[in-house]
Design goal:
Structural class: mainly beta
Distance between the termini: 124 Å
Oligomer: single chain
Strand content: 35-45%
Length: 599
């Protein structure tokens, strides 16, 4: 017992024999008990026992149990109340989280170069305490004085250039450098440092293979920034050779080092103590829910000089906020991939569509869906220059004008046309809706024309026109699409004219030729016998190279045989109402016939 009379204390303790592990039940209960003893009165004085406040819980880091203790602040005397209660407690760490902060950062740059300044270092809270865990430290920012040397007006000066260094590479193209250092930095109103400290120029070594990265050596320390009261000096190094592609990369190393120098005092001065300004208002919480951080800051009202005591304390305070405000999980919107474009709704001026669905809707503070769910685009079925099997695309070369059928067959009509095919197509609509809106194809000589069989200038078979030209002559013909009623030109989005039966007579005489310009494209059979030659004035000549007979003449462009296709050429024009072609037959004893169709 701690006293022989008047009430004393005696204690008993127990220890943890085995800590819990692998999910076992953690220790929970008192480790020390205290009881009164020797309660008989020694004197009439009365002083009650007083227990101190509990200390902070010990850290749970790596532990399953944590502890805390308290002490007896006042021992009982006389008839005072004896001490009663635990002096040490244990508690499971299962749901307790202590505050965790980062290590201190390095000291930042001084805000003044001389005459006394300040710099600071900080640390951050990276985990807040929960369930009575160890609280975060109050200090997250430290401030101390720097650059305490007196200021004097002095210009910046530099040393002389060093010798040029060695080439940065042992082979290939590299560089060499030379440098100089500050011999003194400017003070007060002195001229600032604006001179180059390093020069570089290229150098060449013999070619090489793979070159790894190479660091250079440290240069010598620079001059100290001040002669006394503490300054700084620095040195640096550079990468001498960058690695070639695929070679060993550069290791992460320090490129510059700074250290203190000339720390001896210059002379005594009147010292000015640092003083803080008032705190600013607390900033908005960094998170709207589930705990964030808010802070407030203050600045130095009076700077301490080089011998004064800097303002002591925090320049910024932090505290938790919005800890118990729940959040909705933030989810960004996600779209499915676009479907394939649908089939075109029409051969001409149709529409094609594609669509997509929302795969995941946005939630909380995530990005919500924004964008089209369906897209349309204009389309048309491009039949191509070789698609001669589409009957609706052909001009109907069936009906010649009354002046040319039958009594005037073979001559020019009153307008000078050689042939006028009527109602070959509709400007819009089909069948009966075409009435009053039809198109004629007018074929007119633009040069003198000599025909050996004028009655051969007519329609032939299905959707074919026939034209004969005497040997040793040529004629330029104009093919024009006009409105059947008004005679106005009617341009076609695409107009294709195909010439059949390009051949020659015995011994290469009476060779048939077509001269054309202004077309977008042309098409020949893979087994063609037609030769193509570029001429002056952007003309292209298509000439025959095979003897021909009447059996080579097709009756329908959609049923032409391979032999007939071998002596045909198709010419494609865009946005055209008028096309001019020059038909020529070399000298000989034959009257030659050209067949043509149009789409």
């Amino acid at each position: 017992c701690s006293a022989s009379c008047g009430g004393g204390l005696k204690t008993r303790i127990r220890k943890i024999g085995q800590l819990s592990s692998n999910g076992g039940r953690a220790c929970d209960g008192d480790l020390e008990e205290i009881h009164e003893c020797s309660v008989d009165s020694c004197e009439t004085r009365l002083v009650d026992c007083a227990l101190g406040q509990w200390a902070q819980w010990s850290s749970c880091e790596g532990m399953t149990t944590r502890f805390r203790i308290r002490l007896i602040e006042v021992q009982p005397e006389g008839l005072g109340q004896a001490c009663s209660g635990a002096l040490k407690e244990a508690e499971a760490c299962s749901d307790v989280v202590d505050c965790l902060v980062t290590e201190w950062s390095g000291w930042d740059g001084c805000d003044r170069t001389c005459g006394g300044g300040q710099h600071e270092r900080t640390r951050e809270v990276i985990r807040n305490p929960r369930n009575s865990g160890m609280a975060c430290p109050e200090r997250l920012v430290e401030t101390r004085g720097c650059s305490e040397q007196p200021c004097e007006s002095k210009d910046c000066t530099v040393s002389e250039w060093s010798l040029w260094g060695g080439c940065s590479v042992a082979c290939g193209i590299g560089s060499r450098t030379r440098g100089r250092n500050y011999t003194s930095r400017p003070c007060e109103d002195g001229q600032g440092c604006d001179l180059d400290l390093e020069e570089i120029k290229p150098c060449a070594e013999p070619p090489c293979g793979c070159n790894d990265c190479k660091w250079g050596d440290w240069v010598v320390w620079s001059q100290c920034s001040t002669p006394c009261d503490g300054g700084q000096r620095a040195r640096e190094r550079h990468i001498l050779a960058a690695p070639d592609p695929g070679c060993k990369p550069c290791e992460a190393k320090e490129k510059e080092e700074i250290e203190g120098c000339n720390t001896q005092r210059c002379h005594d001065k009147v010292c000015i103590e640092g003083e803080w300004a008032d705190w600013q208002d607390w900033e908005a919480c960094s998170a709207s829910c589930m705990g964030g951080q808010t802070w407030r800051a203050r600045s130095v009202k009076t700077e301490a000089n080089d011998c004064g005591q800097p303002a002591i304390g925090l320049s910024m305070e932090h505290r938790p906020c919005n800890v118990n405000v729940p959040c909705v999980a933030s989810v960004d919107c996600l779209f499915d991939e676009w479907s394939d474009w649908s089939t075109c709704t029409s051969r001409c001026a149709g529409l094609s569509r594609r669509h997509r669905n929302i795969k995941q809707h946005g939630k909380g503070s995530g990005v919500f869906c924004n964008g089209p769910m369906e897209q349309n685009r204009h389309c048309q079925v491009d039949s191509g220059i070789q698609d001669w099997l589409e009957p609706t695309m052909y001009l109907d070369l069936t009906t010649l004008s009354q002046e040319q059928s039958p009594s005037g067959l073979g001559g020019l009509d009153s307008s000078g046309a050689l042939m006028r095919f009527q109602r070959v197509a509709c400007q819009s609509g089909r069948g009966e809706t075409c009435k009053g809106n039809s198109v004629d194809l007018v074929v007119t000589p633009k040069t003198s024309y000599t025909g050996c069989d004028m009655q051969a200038n007519r329609k032939k078979g299905t959707n074919l026109g026939s034209l004969n030209v005497a040997s040793g002559t040529s004629v330029k013909l104009e093919f024009r699409l006009v409105d059947s009623e008004t005679g106005d030109d009617v341009p076609a989005k695409e107009l294709m004219i195909k010439i059949f039966d390009l051949d020659e007579g015995l011994g290469g005489t009476s060779m048939e030729k077509v001269h054309a310009r202004g077309f977008k494209n042309y098409e020949l059979s893979p087994t063609t016998s037609i030769q193509v030659e570029q001429e002056l004035s952007q003309l292209t000549m298509f000439s025959a190279s095979r003897y021909g007979t009447d059996d080579d003449d097709p009756d329908d462009p959609m049923q032409a045989t391979p032999v007939q296709e071998a002596k045909a050429v198709a010419l494609l024009y865009e946005g055209a109402a008028v096309v001019e072609l020059n038909f020529e037959v070399d000298p000989g004893s034959f009257c030659k016939t050209f067949l043509f169709s149009a789409r």
